[in-house]
Amino acid sequence: MAIICRNTIEAINHLAFRLDLGPDDVVVTTVVEHHANLLPWRRYAKVRYVECNPEGTFEPDAVAGALRGNPHPKLFAVTGASNVSGWLPPVGGLIQLSHEAGVPVLVDAAHLAPHRPLLAAADYLAWSGHKMYAPFGAAPLVGPRRTFAMGDPFLAAAGRSTWCRSTRCSGTLPQSARRPDRPTSSERWPSAPLPVPSQPSGGRRSAHNEHLASRLRSGLGAIEGSRVLGPGPLVPTLPVASFVVEDVHHALVAARPAAEWGISVRHGRMLLRPPLPASLARD
Q1: Of 161, 187, 186, whose CA–CA distance to 172 is shortest?
Q2: Of 66, 177, 220, 247, which sits most exposed with the smallest number of CB within 10 A?
């Protein structure tokens, strides 16, 4: 089933709340993740990190080791595509590894969904409609109905309780009120079509993305003084790249293309949990 949230951040927070995690429970995730797939788990449970190598990638063996650790993990939360480097982890194989270890999987598909088919083998999927050119405010959280059928509502408001006083609300809710998946009139599906493996255009989309990614990374690498972060040129990525220009502040690097060429560049300091990979340690 699907619950329509406002964005991927809210969807992952909703799942973290719904899984009824305790402070001694463990969630396995990686240092490649967007903060949306890091901070909610730290709020509700202990987090076991899979570290990355100097290229900002990680190996399946590292994931397998984290899944085998004690205590046994309650969830493996992994990105489908890095928002920093565009790297595409081998998520299909990682889902299989996790299931063999008896651990369910959440795939943060925010950056994957516009470019690749969604992975039906994942236990949970979250992504944002606006990244697929749908209106803002529509983000599906997909998972088995049993996860969402019972429990206290994620959002406390009218219609979620039997009665309220100034000091407290009733703690006994009817089943219809406890179900967090009740739709409201403002909820809607993203209007963009979802990429699925059966679509014949999927191969053309992937090939086009790979062509753009190759041009982007090779073009940035050819600029004097620039250094592209992330995996090498032989590793497929999305058409997303992070780079630095030696001895030039990142704000100026972003301002010049915007002012002179109308090219929007996001800039800042990408701080990861230590140990910080050497290739990502500079501005």
Answers
A1: 161
A2: 247
What is d(CA 99, CA 276) in angstroms, rounded to the nearest whole number? Answer: 29
Question: Tokens standing for 107?
Answer: 């795939």
Instruction: Choose which CATH entry (3.40.640.10, 2.40.240.10, 3.40.50.970, 3.10.110.10) describes domain 2-178.
Output: 3.40.640.10
Q: Domain residue spans in the chain?
A: 2-178, 201-280
Burial class (CB in 10 A: 0-12, 13-18, 19+), 246: exposed
Spans of the chain, pLDDT less than 50:
171-178, 181-193, 196-200, 272-283
pTM score: 0.78
Q: Write the pLDDT tens digit of every residue in 190-211.
A: 444 455 444 445 577 788 888 8
The two structure tokens encoding residue 20: 């009824």
100-110 b/e with 16+ CB inside 10 Å = b? ebebbbbbbbb
> What residues contact 49, with CB distance under 8 A and at least 6 apart?
28, 29, 30, 31, 66, 273
At which residue do the structure tokens 């920093």 appear? 84
